[in-house]
Amino acid sequence: MEKNILVVDDNQLILYGLARALHSGSFAVQTATTAQMAVEKLSCCPYDLCLLDVHLADLNGLELMKMIKDICPKTKFIIMTASCLDSPELRENINEAMASGACHFIAKPFNLREVTEVVRWVLTEGADFHTGFRFTGSGFVKRSRKNPRKPCGENIDFQMSVIDQGTSTRWSLEALAVDISDGGLGLLSQYPLKESQIIGFDEQMGNRTGVVAWSKMTDEGNWRVGIRFA
Fold first, then answer.
1. What's this model's pTM, rounded to 2 decimal places?
2. Going from the N-terminus, what domains does the chain have, and what CATH number goes with each?
3. Sheet architecture: strand order including 28-32
4. Most buried of 4, 81, 114, 172 (most Cβ within 10 A)?
């Protein structure tokens, strides 16, 4: 029998990637970018599993989890987050998710194939799925950089493609480079760059191409972004 999965995240690229990966795994997948949209979808269909981001635009994901459990008590949960590994916020989210009955915690960025395997595990464990709370994602693995970064403080120009109403437009933007190495750089951007976006640099950076490895909004409303050179 086909399993129904609801993915709730405000990042369209993550929704697209997860929907494609899980559909190919023979699951019926629906997506929602807000808590309100998720609740509306729940009124039409019960879901076996919900992959739920902690940070949503209209409601904390863990609060939404409690609402979903009231509507569909049998729904299982996998929690997703891009919170920093060492942050008190992440530890608090993990504790709250465990207390509320979540069975898995996935740190962004993650590998789609690995997430698909996690989903299969959760949906085949039956009544004992909640035993042994587990963690997945490179965000839980501390790695030393192959190319140590050095501090920077220079504004750099970059370009990226933006699709608006079906039309692709090339934007030129500027951000502050806070650190840099041969393998990548860290940016402080006023524009909300998202994971997996591809950006191009001009002669200032040797006409290199970069991929957004992670992106997180700071308290000042800017975005702290990690770029990996392609």
1. 0.56
2. 4-140 (3.40.50.2300), 150-229 (2.40.10.220)
3. 28-32, 4-8, 49-53, 76-81, 104-107, 134-136
4. 81
